[in-house]
Amino acid sequence: xxxxxxxxxxxxxxxxxxxxxxxxxxxxxxxxxxxxxxxxxxxxxxxxxxxxxxxxxxxxxxxxxxxxxxxxxxxxxxxxxxxxxxxxxxxxxxxxxxxxxxxxxxxxxxxxxxxxxxxxxxxxxxxxxxxxxxxxxxxxxxxxxxxxxxxxxxxxxxxxxxxxxxxxxxxxxxxxxxxxxxxxxxxxxxxxxxxxxxxxxxxxxxxxxxxxxxxxxxxxxxxxxxxxxxxxxxxxxxxxxxxxxxxxxxxxxxxxxxxxxxxxxxxxxxxxxxxxxxxxxxxxxxxxxxxxxxxxxxxxxxxxxxxxxxxxxxxxxxxxxxxxxxxxxxxxxxxxxxxxxxxxxxxxxxxxxxxxxxxxxxxxxxxxxxxxxxxxxxxxxxxxxxxxxxxxxxxxxxxxxxxxxxxxxxxxxxxxxxxxxxxx
Length: 424
Fold this sequence. Notes:
- The protein is of the alpha/beta class.
- The protein has helices at about 15-20, 40-50, 65-75, 80-95, 95-105, 150-160, 180-185, 230-240, 260-270, 290-295, 305-310, 320-330, 370-380, 385-400, 410-420; strands spanning about 25, 55-60, 110-115, 115-130, 135-150, 165-170, 190-195, 200-210, 215-220, 250-255, 275-280, 300-305, 335, 345, 350-355.
- A hairpin with a 6-residue loop joins strand 4 (about 115-130) and strand 5 (about 135-150).
């Protein structure tokens, strides 16, 4: 008989146990061996319960009924296609613990990211009504918050799984926001920033209805000229060609001027594993296609609209689009993200892998593609199988769309736990 239930919206039960001071803490048999705990927190919880005079017990492992398994299979959370897909991944790669063990190898990687810093500002408001004098809707200001986006958001996501991460970027010397950007870096991320005179760091200010998170207006603060000054380009290229070797170079190209042809050539000259995400947005529509500057890549990631723009084909089947784009940029692997339609991956030897979306709730799509690129590029650098890369990418994307903007990365614990849940 249960007298009281408390739902915890926390990564672990440590803080709650220190407040509730339980005499008994019970976990399932899959937590008995700490090495099998994908969250890595069971030892912290055991220490916490003992600190308040309680004891930890584990239930018998004679018969185990997984609620996650029952929900996945019988309660309609996923479609027949999604359940069949998850069953196939389970048969190929085993349990969530086995997949998590592969992902934990990412900690070995040394990663360098090159790309544009973007400061995301979210201004929350509510509509008051139409102006009597002008044909516009008047809004009441409620609050605002800032996030470090662009290459910083990708780096912080990479840092959840990889121990050594470096960002190489350019900050505007006019309204640089450098102090804010540095304050938002994960502890294991370092920043090497070059200065762009008479130019601001990119800021994207979005106005939203607070209650429904619906965006109604956006203002961009960007350079009046998008060409990086020659002196800065030379200095940055020299640094990239002389810096210590890394296992993975990730290019986060948002089309705001940081990535030039000279920078790309400098990267290729090192012979390192190079992964690229080149994005099309309202500030560079049609002028930042992945085919413009890139070829001979190890891994590339774009969304479906960007892929179709790159090959100038709106209606052709996505398989044909991907095959043409892969050949055009001469990449060993290509991943095309497709929103609610999941993703599709391509390999140079002709392998095509289709993976359905796994999200059940969408709060904000901003940052989901960056999170997917962060994890899939890292997995590709360790030469994981393409179908597994696509699965992990969709898993992290499913968690990312539940976070407002780039408020925080998807934690490693959340990702590993979610994968464990999916594969039960």
